[in-house]
Specification:
The chain is α+β, with helices and mostly antiparallel strands. Strands 1-2-3-4 form a four-stranded antiparallel β-sheet, with no helix packed on it. The chain starts with 16 loop residues before the first helix and ends with a strand. This is BQ5605_C018g08767 protein. GO terms for molecular function: nucleic acid binding. It holds the Pfam family SH3_Tf2-1.
C-alpha cells in the first residue's frame, strides 16, 4: 500500500498533524455526548468513528471509507442492513431447527418412572466399568445387565438425575440419569 512509519518526538504533536486533528475532532464530539460523570464515553466511540469516516476529509476531499474500503458510508449502511437481515434469517432458521429437534426427541421420549427418595433401583451396567467380586477384571459383555438394588438418596427432577447409595469401594459417580436406572 506504500505506507511509511514516521516516528514523532514526545510532546511535539505537530509532527503527526493528521492523527492529532482526528483526536481533536473525536474529543470535541465526545464532549457533546458524554454524561456528566464522563463514564460512558466508550459507548459513543463507535458512532463517532463512523461519523468521522463518513465525513469528507478536508485534505483528501474523500471519505475515509472510500479511501480504505473503496466505497462510501452509504454503502456501508446498506451492508449493515443486509447483515442484520441475514442474522434475522439465521436466528429464524435456528429457532425452527430447535423446534424440529424437540419434536424429534419427544417422539421417542417415554414418561419418566416415578422414583422417590428411599426407593430401591437397579442400575444399567452397560456403561459402567465393573470388577468382579474377586477384584479381577472380567469381560463386561458377560456381566449381568443390571446391578443393585441401590437406595435413592436424592432426586433432581430438573435434570432427571438420581443420587444413589453405592456399595463401599464403588468408584462410580453417585448421580445417575434416569435412563441408566
Amino acid at each position: 500500500m506504500g505506507t511509511q512509519l514516521a516516528m514523532s518526538t514526545s510532546f511535539h504533536p505537530e509532527t503527526d498533524g493528521r492523527s492529532e486533528r482526528t483526536n481533536k475532532t473525536t474529543i470535541q464530539a465526545l464532549r457533546a455526548v458524554v454524561n456528566h460523570q464522563q463514564n460512558d464515553w466508550v459507548r459513543h466511540l463507535g458512532n463517532i468513528k463512523f461519523a468521522i469516516n463518513a465525513s469528507v476529509n478536508a485534505s483528501t476531499k474523500k471519505l475515509p471509507f472510500e479511501v480504505v474500503l473503496g466505497f462510501g458510508g452509504d454503502r456501508l449502511i446498506d451492508l449493515i442492513a443486509e447483515r442484520k437481515a441475514v442474522l434475522v434469517e439465521v436466528q429464524d432458521a435456528l429457532a425452527a431447527a430447535k423446534v424440529r429437534q424437540v419434536e424429534q426427541v419427544n417422539r421417542h421420549r417415554q414418561p419418566e418412572p416415578e422414583i422417590a427418595v428411599g426407593d430401591l433401583v437397579m442400575v444399567d451396567t452397560r456403561d459402567r466399568r465393573l470388577r468382579s467380586k474377586t477384584g479381577q477384571r472380567k469381560s463386561a459383555k458377560l456381566f449381568d445387565r443390571f446391578e443393585g438394588p441401590y437406595k435413592v438418596l436424592a432426586t433432581n427432577v430438573a435434570t432427571s438425575n438420581y443420587t444413589l447409595q453405592l456399595n463401599e469401594g464403588d468408584r462410580s459417580h453417585p448421580p445417575f440419569h434416569v435412563s441408566k436406572l
